[in-house]
Write a structure and sequence with these properties.
The complex is a heterodimer.
Chain A (H helix, E strand, L loop, with lengths): L29 E14 L2 E15 L9 H15 L1 H4 L14 H15 L6 E2 L5 H15 L2 E2 L2 E2 L2 E5 L8 E9 L2 H7 L8 E5 L6 E6 L7 E2 L1 E7 L2 E6 L2 E8 L2 E4 L7 H8 L9 H24 L3 E6 L10 E12 L1 H25 L4 H12 L4 H11 L7 E5 L4 E8 L9 E5 L9 E2 L7 H12 L4 E5 L5 E7 L4 E6 L6
Parallel strand pairs in A: 3-10, 6-8, 15-17, 19-23
Antiparallel strand pairs in A: 1-2, 4-5, 6-11, 7-9, 8-9, 11-12, 12-13, 13-14, 15-21, 16-18, 17-18, 19-20, 21-22, 22-23
Chain B lengths: L6 H11 L8 E3 L1 H10 L5 H13 L5 E4 L10 E9 L2 E10 L7 E9 L1
Parallel strand pairs in B: 1-5
Antiparallel strand pairs in B: 2-3, 3-4, 4-5
The chains are: A alpha+beta, B alpha+beta.
């Protein structure tokens, strides 16, 4: 910051007598008046509203034009300092605060929560109301926690604002723990990957009251913050998952796009949804969910890796995978079979429920059976996907067909000298993005470059590339731009 | 842009800016004040006034531009400074309020990067 040019010793108090001439209407009617005043100033790069309730300022009595002098400026500066000082916030981060309650980012999330709370959706569970200041504290604390590590591992955990009576199966602590970055970093390893720390509070203070083994569903109108990596947060708001991504310096608002990884994969693979066969439609959709789960599991492992999705068990793509050290003698069908058998069970459950409902059983018994059947049990599929994900730790790619037949792992993409494939990069954010032809080197390291070459050579394949620092890229040929498209930061959609 | 060469007007600018240290001689429209606060790394209106003063002392050239905008048409001209502030080349658009030739003032109506 530059040093002010005027030194404090120069501050003298001589003032011009009123009335002054108005710069706007030129009438000699400018007098000092006291009015309430608000203006916008930047604080840590974010606009905040500064309020000066008793603003003493020269104003034209004829046209109302404000003529700001040094005194007026000093009043605004004092109000700014008061509103942004650590003392007024009561927090230690003070001027380093990144997510001030007045910031647009906090406002967007808060407004969305208020909007959801006012929507008459019977199925939605109202979450604990949260103020802008609480929201600001929560995100600020989560951000700083993301920069901490525990025994060499960076913090990776989710936090959800939810009352104990709205969160089934959560473990509550005997005494709540204050929400600060050190506690989050300490507790993070104890929370299962699918779970989250449960946060609630009264007044401005928030506490961690326990943790759950699963996350509150999207039907709970609450805020969930996933700490993904140092400086990287995903903020979900009710059904908008994600609603916003904090990624280093950029805060990307993604709300309302309803894009997620399974739907993106369904589009690019492509796996058309059969419109006349509901079971086949469900099967296709669950296969896309399984691909996303597989990517998530490789990401969680932290080894990095690549999943190559090929159209058929054999084909021209084999020419580019040399060596393919660990090709199975017969494709592994575990995930596909798990999906298929679960869909069969669902069919059977549906028929059984139809009979139960038509029977003379008491309503209580009928409801009990309903509840048992409505619990989706996808454990077999998840278990199978977990076993496949561990194959990514071996050097080389996992090769899988669009129908989830696992063909093997450890496949190396053969390097061929030839033309450099055209490549364009896109971000996992909503809205139209410019198509900017880029160089192959910009795609990343060897793994990314190999995936680009593979997708260019075999235009009906898709590569999921996961880096050790837990970034997911989706690489595929896009005919509309006649180029390989690399979708970066697809992990935001997980 | 024609440079301001009228010795009377120049003398008036010098007279106003000689009072840069006192409130009421160099004033600003609120948008200009907020731009200074948000973009000039902690500088104040007084700092800007002092730099304008120093600029004239260094024989800097003020541009005299006929006013064409309706909202400021009560003044025939606006006067533009191009100075360096906080390491940035900054354009300052002012009007000289000289209804009382013995007590002229400067009002900053706009300020932004050159």
């Amino acid at each position: 910051m530059s040093e002010p040019l005027a030194s404090p010793e120069q501050a003298e108090t001589k003032t011009r007598p009123f009335p002054w001439s108005c710069p706007k209407c030129r009438r000699q009617e400018v007098q000092r008046v006291t009015i309430p005043y608000q203006c916008e100033r930047l604080f840590n790069g974010e606009p905040i509203t500064i309020s000066v309730p008793n603003f003493s300022v020269p104003r034209c009595g004829n046209c109302g034009e404000l003529v700001l002098d040094y005194d007026a400026e000093e009043q605004i500066n004092k109000a700014y300092e008061t509103q942004t000082s650590p003392e007024s916030n009561g927090e230690s981060w003070g001027r380093n605060r990144l997510f001030a309650p007045e910031s647009n980012l906090i406002g967007r999330i808060h407004d969305q929560l208020v909007h959801l709370a006012n929507m008459p959706i019977p199925a939605a569970i109202p979450a604990q109301p949260i103020s802008r200041k609480q929201l600001s504290n929560l995100i600020e604390t989560a951000f700083w926690a993301s920069l901490r590590s525990n025994e060499g591992r960076s913090t990776r955990v989710s936090l959800a604002v939810i009352a104990a009576d709205k969160y089934c199966n959560a473990l509550a602590f005997a005494a709540p723990i204050s929400l600060d970055e050190s506690h989050i970093a300490k507790l993070a390893p104890a929370v299962p990957p699918e779970g989250c720390l449960a946060v609630s509070g009264a007044g401005d203070a928030l506490t961690i009251w326990g943790f759950g083994r699963n996350r509150p569903g999207s039907f709970v109108n609450t805020t969930t913050i996933k700490i993904l990596a140092p400086g990287s947060l995903i903020i979900d708001v009710g059904p908008f998952q994600p609603f916003l991504v904090v990624n280093g310096k950029s805060n990307l608002v993604i709300e309302g796009t309803h894009i997620n990884l399974p739907s993106y994969l369904q589009r690019v693979l492509p796996k058309p949804l059969p419109t006349e066969d509901i079971r086949a439609t469900q099967a296709v959709w669950h296969e896309c969910l399984a691909f996303a789960d597989l990517a998530r599991m490789v990401l969680d492992d932290g080894h990095g890796g690549m999943v190559l999705i090929v159209p058929t068990v054999t084909g021209p793509w084999e020419e580019s995978l040399k060596p393919f050290d660990y090709r199975f003698s017969a494709p592994d069908r575990t995930i596909g079979d798990a999906i298929s058998s679960r869909l069969d069970e669902q069919d059977a459950d549906g028929k059984m429920l139809h009979h139960v409902w038509a029977s003379q059983l008491p309503d209580e018994a009928k409801n009990h059976v309903m509840r048992l059947c409505s619990k989706q049990q996808w454990a077999a599929w998840k278990g199978a996907a977990g076993a496949i994900a561990s194959l990514a730790a071996v050097d080389g790619a996992i090769v899988v067909t669009r129908e989830l037949l696992i063909l093997g792992f450890g496949a190396k993409i053969a390097q061929r000298n030839g033309t450099v494939p055209p490549v364009c990069f896109f971000e996992a954010v909503p809205g139209k993005q410019n198509v900017v032809p880029s160089s192959l080197e910009q795609s990343g390291g060897t793994r990314h470059q190999s995936a680009v070459r593979f997708a260019a050579a075999h235009k009906d394949t898709v590569a999921l590339v996961i880096s050790q620092d837990r970034h997911l890229s989706i690489v595929h040929w896009k005919e509309a731009i006649h180029s390989v498209a690399v979708l970066r930061h697809a992990e935001w959609w997980l | 842009m024609p440079p301001l060469t009228d010795p009377v007007m120049l003398a008036q600018f010098r007279a106003v800016l000689a009072n840069w240290n006192y409130t009421g001689y160099v004033t600003a429209k609120d948008v200009a004040l907020h731009w200074i606060a948000n973009n000039l790394g902690g500088l104040s209106l007084k700092d800007v006034a002092k730099e304008m003063h120093d600029f004239l002392q260094r024989s800097g050239v003020i541009d005299q531009v006929p006013e064409t905008r309706r909202e400021w048409s009560v003044w025939p001209f606006h006067y533009d400074f191009r100075v360096q502030l906080a390491g940035r080349d900054v354009y300052i658009e002012t009007i000289l309020q000289d209804d009382d030739p013995n007590d002229p003032t400067i009002h900053i109506v706009s300020i932004h990067d050159v």
